[in-house]
Amino acid sequence: MHDDILEVLISEEEIQEKVAELGAQITEEYKEKFPLVIGILKGSLPFMGDLMKKIDSHLEYDVMDVSSYGSAFVTSGEVKIVKDLNTSIEGRDVLIVEDIIDSGNTLKYLTDLFKYRKANSVKIVTLLDKPEGRQVDISPDLAGFIVPDKFVVGYGLDYIERYRNLPYIGVLKPRVYQK
Ligand SMILES: O=P(O)(O)OC[C@H]1O[C@H](OP(=O)(O)OP(=O)(O)O)[C@H](O)[C@@H]1O
Ligand SMILES: Nc1nc2[nH]cnc2c(=O)[nH]1
Per the database record, which ranges form the Phosphoribosyltransferase domain (predicted)? Predict the structure, then answer.
């Protein structure tokens, strides 16, 4: 559909295969527990929806909306809560679901917050990990794919709110944002 402006980096089939693998790992990890799975809006929505169906054990889920100040490409490191959780996390085994970890600022803020709120454990699953973008010392417990230091879109990830509904991950050709 978007051949002229996007290069496919990870296909729909590759994503779905990886989501099933991650779901199986999470099932194993949390089978004796009742984790609170927290999806971070808006980007994690497609991943969260697919992943939940691949976890074969009891869990509770909630969502939280946070945003980072900055431009589409550069984060300022400052994170603010747009919508908080409805669930208390004290004593809970929390699994944060993200679409991407880049600078690490969002997940550093969230893991610190959940520990401060006295979660029993806090782990991170992310579909994409961009280690070259890292500004703070944080790494996911589970990651689907390592991506290069390029701005990626699709499967929840946007460029000025577009492309979130693509079923695959792509890299926008520079002319799209050089306009
Ligand atoms: O590691 P970082 O550099 O903090 O980047 C990762 C965050 O950036 C994106 O969210 P964004 O703030 O763009 O909001 P969105 O999910 O609503 O698009 C993404 O969904 C992560 O939450
Ligand atoms: N769409 C998008 N959002 C991001 N937030 C942090 N890194 C990225 C990225 O590569 N693409």
Answer: 13-159
Mean per-residue pLDDT over the chain, rounded: 94
Local confidence band at 103 (pLDDT 50, 70, 90 cut-offs):
very high
Is the ipTM reported for this complex over the cut 0.90? yes
Annotated active-site residue in 50, 93, 99, 102: 102
Beta bridge partner(s), residue 100: 128
**CA distances from residue 165 to 8, 78, 137 in whole angstroms, order as listed:** 14, 27, 31
Domains of the chain, each with CATH number or no CATH: 12-147 (3.40.50.2020)
The torsion of the CA quartet 84, 166, 132, 26, rounded to 10 degrees, works out to: 60
- Check if the beta carbon of residue 173 is closer than 8 Å to that of residue 116: no
**pTM score, two decimals?**
0.95
Residue 47 CA to ligand 1 center (angstroms) comes to 14
Distance 32 CA to ligand 1 centre (A): 31
Asked if the model's pLDDT at residue 1 lies above 70, the reply is: no
* Token couple for 9: 């980096």
